[in-house]
Amino acid sequence: MKAKWALLTKIQLLEMFGLNKARYSADGRVKRRLFGAAVLFGAVGLILLGFTAAVCVLLAEQGLGAHVPAFMLAISSFTVLIYALVRGAGGLFAVRDYDLIMSMPVKKRDMIVSRLICAYLPNLGFTLLFLLPALVVYFVYCGFTFGALGAVVLAAVCAPLAPLAVALTVGTLLSTLTAGFRYRNVLRALFGILAFGALMAAYMLFTFSAQTDIGAGLADIAEALIAKAYPPALLLDKTLTGEAVWGVFAFAGGSAALAAAFTAVASACYTRIHASLQARSARRAYKAEQIGHSSAFAALVKKEFKRLFSSTAYFFNSVGSLLVIAVLVIVMQAGFGDTVFSVPALKANQPYMLTALIVTMLGSACPAASALSMEGQARGQLFAMPLTPRKILLAKAAPTFLLDAPVSAVIALICCALSGGQWHAYLLCPLAGVITAAAVALGGIFLNCKYPKYEWTQEAQVVKRSAPVAILALGSIVPGMAVTVLTIFFGWIPLAAIAAVYAVLAVCLLFWLKKAKLFV
Amino acid sequence: MNTPVLEISHYTKSYDGKRNAVSDLSLTVREGDIYGFIGQNGAGKTTTLRACAGILDFREGDIRIGGVSVRQDPVRCKQMTAYIPDNPDLYDFLTGIQYLNFVADVYGVEKAVRKERIARYAAMFRIEGDLGSLVGAYSHGMKQKLAVTAALLHAPKLLLLDEPFVGLDPEAAFRLKEVFRELCADGAAIFFSTHVLDVAEKLCGRIAIIKDGRLVADGNTDEVRGDESLDQVFLEVLGGES
């Protein structure tokens, strides 16, 4: 008989990848969608793999070959930590199938372990995307040894454990402490954004300050980078450089111990945590003045905003990405203002380059890409109302536009002001941001309409791991990056060109909306 | 004779293009009718109700509400109807009153009218003390009551309900039956599915029985039932299956 945690894990995995649904569904579209998603994620994986390999080679060429695996371990673990912090403990506690699972003869520990494994596996895959090229590059530059192979494999397998345990502990504490608040989701999202913003800012400030110590020696800088990004990765570094063979075992042991400690504590408190998260607030009557009146479209838009501000994952996915854009662009401006952008040719094109960067990243700040999927099982209610699909879809696209357009326009204007842009930069840059926001909002709802994902148990499944979100993010990054590079040489022209393309796209999508249909 | 409110003619629906979930179904619900739609699990009741509500696409046949085709002008049809699914999954992130406001806005119910109706139905279903709370905190029965209240706000001409009595406490079920009768006396019509044959027998003036997607009995309750109980008739038309 299989262990119960294994059975529970299997069920979780079947849901996570949609394999079972695709296998048994009579609807060919389900299989095609899964195949499409697999191809897409495969492509993203390959791009990331190529990018990581290029960085590894670059570092090795600088004479840092021995430090490459530890460096990549630090980067991947840091990313896993941020991602897990953002996600919180939503996948562990107050899950929809709690009653079903806990009514069975299953230990709480089995449930926790199964959920942890499901959180661990994608992060392991992500870590391998960094460590596999690092390992190959290490062998090419430093020679093959079984010891190094074993050390890196052991480090890779254990790497996601500690960041996950730390992030889940923080997420659990935050969820439990805010459980009694009415606007707890907003509080959690704000905390997540603050934590993310602080980490991003600290990371970038550190990166820029590290560059100033270039005379300290490459090996020292490598160690400093690793230590500041993710200190435990230094243990692998010490093993690979021969300073301390026990380093990787300490890393593995520490990671496993943290995960085990989290599992033990969470299992012991599982019921209490679940109860506190599920606690119903006291009955609350309504007041007559709460009955308002607005148009159907306004009511739909208000509902979309309320949903956005009520869901931690959904809110973070959009507002958090906007914050990343703001931090990145402003840090780029502040960090490179006196160095890279002091070159006259680049300084003249600086506002266009930074606006192109906004255009590149705006696709990641698109709640519209999951707005329809968020309806889930309740979609029948909405579709049964006397509303045209156009009205419903426009209302779902509205929050994306209303958030992205002003933020991108304001950041673009700030960039113009900081870089002393000419009058046409003040016109083109915010306009490009607004047009991109419109195209992103309409593109997001178009993709979500084509590839809806109504069956989900956690919001993160649609706001982070659905095809429309991935397609839109990738689809805006690729042309955006190209435009960013081209603005270095051609100034405003590539930015104006992409704005024109996005404007045409937005108009086409507006026409498509007239023909759109919505059925359960 | 009363005017038809819902006319289903030769409605056929297949999900996979091979097997029909509903085949060539035709029936008419008229003003004042409380029409019960009964059948086994998977017989095609929900598939029919969803198509009537305009949320399920179909290729064959036609469904008209107040003389308007659901396929030709779904928005006009939806303005005349209210649909309550078997397990209303309402917006957990809204409070009860916000949800009612949202529905009233979408249906264009005047402020004064919605105030009066919310007060009336909330008191009737005893949820006025909970409307300030988030829907996510409601029990299944309370969600059902909220869904019913929302459905009544725009005084629909046709109420489409899928298992409306599941989850309701006896008092709320009684009140709902009273509301059904009131609405029908005012010229509306009710078309609902149920597994509770006793309710169908006592409440419905007309009954349709569906088996494997085909209509096997349809007419006045007394005619369908004859001298037997509805349970017996139901088992007979299903070929003695129990």
Query: First CA to last CA of chain B: what distance?
Result: 37 Å
Question: What is the H/E string of chain B?
Answer: EEEHEEHEHHHEHEHEEHH
- Overall spatial form of chain B: globular
Q: Largest sheet of chain A at a glance?
A: none
The CATH superfamily label of the domain at 4-88 and 156-237 in chain B reads P-loop containing nucleotide triphosphate hydrolases
The greatest interface here is: A-B, 43 and 50 residues
Count of runs of 4 or more consecutive helical residues of chain B = 9
How far apart lie the N and C ends of chain A? Answer: 40 Å
- How many strands in all of chain B? 10
The CATH class assignment of the domain at 4-88 and 156-237 in chain B is Alpha Beta
* Global Rg of chain B: 18 Å
The class by helix and strand makeup of chain B works out as: alpha/beta
Tell me what the structure shows.
The complex is a heterodimer of chains A (520) and B (242). Chain A has 520 residues and is mainly α. Chain A is 78% helix and 0% strand. Chain A has two domains: 44-278, no CATH class; 296-515, no CATH class. Chain A has helices at residues 4-17, 19-24, 28-64, 68-87, 98-102, 108-142, 146-158, 161-177, 184-211, 218-229, 233-240, 247-278, 296-310, 312-336, 344-361, 368-371, 379-383, 389-419, 423-450, 460-463, 467-490, 492-515. By secondary structure, chain B is of the alpha/beta class. Chain B has a domain at 4-88 and 156-237: P-loop containing nucleotide triphosphate hydrolases (Rossmann fold). Chain B is 37% helix and 26% strand. Chain B contains nine helices and ten strands. In chain B, helix 3 (96-107) runs parallel beside helix 5 and helix 4 runs antiparallel to helix 5 (140-152). The model of chain B has no long low-confidence stretch (mean pLDDT 91). Chains A and B meet through helix 13 and helix 17 of A and helix 2, strand 6, helix 3 and helix 4 of B.
